[in-house]
Amino acid sequence: MASKDSSYSAKDIQVLEGLEAVRKRPGMYIGSTGPKGLHHLVYEVVDNSVDEALAGFCTAIEIVIHADGSVSVTDNGRGIPVDNVPKYRKPAVEVVLGTLHAGGKFGGEGYKVSGGLHGVGVSVVNALSSKLEVEVKRDGKIWQQTFERGKPTSTLEPIGKTKTTGTKITFWADPEIFETTEYSWEVLVSRMRETAFLNKNLKITLIDERELEPRQEEFRYSGGILDFVKYLNDKRETLHARPLYFEAEGQEGVVEVAMQWNTGYTETILAFANNINTHEGGTHLEGFKNALTRTINEYARKQGILKEKDENLSGEDIREGLTAVISVKLREPQFEGQTKTKLGNTEMRSFVQAAVGQALSEFLEEHPKPARAIVVKCSQAAKARAAARKARELTRRKGLLDSSTLPGKLADCSVKEAALTEIYLVEGDSAGGSAKQARDRSFQAILPLRGKILNVEKAGINRALSSEEIQAMITALGTGIAEEFDIEQARYHKAIIMTDADVDGSHIRCLILTFFYRYMREMIERGFVYIAQPPLFKVSVGKKHEYAYSDRQLQQILARLPENTKYAVQRYKGLGEMNPEQLWETTMDPERRTLLQVTLDDALAAEEAIVDLMGDQVQPRREFIQRHAKNVRFLDI
Fold first, then answer.
1. C-alpha span between 490 and 495 (Å, rounded)
2. What's the number of domains the chain is made of?
3. Angstrom distance (rounded) from CA 110 to CA 335
4. Domain boundary among 353, 386, 419
C-alpha cells in the first residue's frame, strides 16, 4: 500500500537514452543473460555478415574465439558505410553500432533479403559488451573505432590503406551483464554448420584460440540444403540414394526444398525463412505439408497402391521417416512474436504448396522405383498407425489408457492444479518405495518404473503402446502422445526423472528422454521435464554429515576439514541406499534439492544426439563415446 505522501509527477518519468534500455533489460533483446544470450551475441554479428552474403557481396566469414574471451567476426563484404548520416551528423558505422533500429534493412536497396529485420542486432551486441572494436575496409582505407558499453571511446579514424573490403567486429561480452562469458565450441560449431548449409558456397571458418593447440573447423557446402539433408540422414538407412532437391522463384520470393525418406519412424523437418530457423513453423511449412499429403495420395491412387475402398494416407503417415529442409527467402517477412519463430506471410502458403506439388509430382513420375518405395513406406506407416489406434482402443477398454483409471503403482498427490504439482519417474520399485515415504503427498506424485523401458527410437508407435511402463507414463502424465498429444491435459507441470547415479541409471534416463523427445516433445519445449540430482557422496564426521553432488564438491568438503579429523565417505550408487529422510533432504525437498531442467536450445544437436545414441547404427555410438570419453565424470565397472 502506497503512503499518503507518495507522489507521481514528471520527475518520476525515466527516459533511457541511446542503448541504456538494452543494458537495463537485456533479456528483452537477447532472451536471457545465461549461456543462450551470450551465444546470441555471436549470432547477431555473424547474421550481419550473412546478410552481406545474401546480397551477393560476401563469400567468407571467419569467427575467432580469442584466449582473452573476446570474439571477432570478419567478413569480406562491402564494409559498413563510413560516410556521415546527415540526420545524426555522425559516420554510418557509429550510427549502426550505437543506435537501435538503425541499419540498411528498412527499405531502399541496402538489402533485398535480410534476417535481422528489427535492426537491433549489432547495436545490442555493442551495448552488452564491456568493449567493442570495429574495423572497416572500404574506399581504399582501413577505418577503426572503439566503444565501451555502447558508448564511443574514439572517433572513426583511418589507420591504413587496403585494396579489399570487409568488416571486422571484435567484442568482449560484459561480465557485469552475463552469468558466464565462457563460449561453447560445440554450440557455435552446430550453429555455424547450419548457417553454411543454408547459404550455398559461403565459407565459414570457426577458430578457438583458448587452448594451447588452437582448433579450427571450416564449413562450406556447394550443395547447400541438399548437403544438409544428406548430413541429417548420414546415420540412417535411406529409401532412395539421392535426396530430392528443387527450387522455385516468383513474386513472393524464393523457395528451396531438399527431402529424403529413411527407414526410421520419426520425421525431421526443418523450416527456415531468410536463414532464421522458424521452430514454430508457419505458412511455408503449412504449404509444404499440404502439397506433400495431396501429391503422395494422388500418386498412390494413380498407381493402384491405394484402392478405391482405402482411406487416404494421413500427413503423419507420409512424413514418417522423412527428413526435409525448407528454406524460403522473401523481401518482407512477417514473423509472429519477437522470437521470430513462426512465419506469417499468407502468400507463402500457396506459393510453396504449388512449387512443391509440381516438383514432387514430376519426381514421382520420372523415378518410379524410389517413388514406389516411398509410397509403400507411407502405406506401412498407415497400417502401423491403425494397429496403434486399435491397441489404444483395446487398452482403453482395459482401463490402461483411460485418464480416469490411473496406473495402480502410481502414488498420486492430493493437489489437482497441474501448475503446482510434480511427478517423479523413479527407477525401480525399491527406490520408488523410499520416494513414496519421503515425498510431500500434497503436491508430489511417484511413479516407479521397472527396469529399462523400450527404446522408442528403434520401435514404432504400436510397439511403444504395448509396453507396460510406457503405458503407465502416458496415463499418469495425461497428455496422450503423437497426434493425440495435448499439453493442456498435462496432470503435472514438472516431470522429474530420478535414476541411480550409475551406468544403468544413465541408460534409463536416456531412454525416458528419448520417449519424451519423440512422443511428448512439447513437454520439453514448455520446460516441464527435469532431471533429479541425487548426491554422489555422503561425508560423515561423527554424528554430523554433509552431501557432495560432484567429485569437485567432495574435494572442497574434505579440504575444509581440520587436520587429523576422522571422517567416512560413502559413495551412493543407488537411490535405494538412502533412507526416506535422506532422499527427502537431498533430492526431493524443493528448498534444498537441485533439479536440471531439460531444454531444447538446439533442436538439431538434440536430433543428432538421439540418433547417435539410440539409433540402429553402432558406429555413431562408438564415435560419440570416443569423442566425449575425456568428459566422463565417473565410470562404474
1. 10
2. 3
3. 21
4. 386
**Coil vs helix vs strand at 218:** strand
- Please give the pLDDT value at position 575: 85
Do residues 321 and 292 make contact, with C-beta atoms less than 8 angstroms apart?
no
Q: Could you say which of 148, 504, 577, 585 is catalytic?
A: 504
* 211 & 237 share domain: no
Of the candidates 198, 306, 186, the residue with the CA atom closest to the CA atom of residue 256: 198
> Do 355 and 466 sit in the same domain of this protein?
no
CATH for 147:
3.30.565.10
Give the pLDDT confidence of 566-583 residue by residue, as tens digits: 999 998 878 878 889 999
Helix residue spans in 520-596 (DSSP H): 521-525, 551-560, 580-583
Active-site residue, from 252, 500, 602, 608: 500
The one catalytic residue in 75, 427, 469, 602 is 427
CB within 8 A of 1, min separation 6: which ones? none
Longest dimension (CA), the chain: 86
Residue with cell 535411406: 238
CB atoms within 10 A of CB 143: 22
Q: Is the pLDDT of residue 631 over 60?
A: no
Asked if 636 is an active-site residue, the reply is no
500 catalytic residue (yes or no): yes
User: pTM value?
Assistant: 0.75
Whole domain around residue 273: which residue ranges? 225-386
Percent pLDDT > 70 in the chain is 85
Number of Cα atoms under 13 Å in the Cβ half of residue 336: 11
pLDDT by residue (tens digit) across 467-500? 888 889 998 999 888 777 899 999 999 999 999 8
Q: Please check whether residue 534 is in contact with residue 427, taking contact to mean a CB–CB distance below 8 angstroms.
A: no
Please tell me the predicted confidence (pLDDT) of residue 229. 96
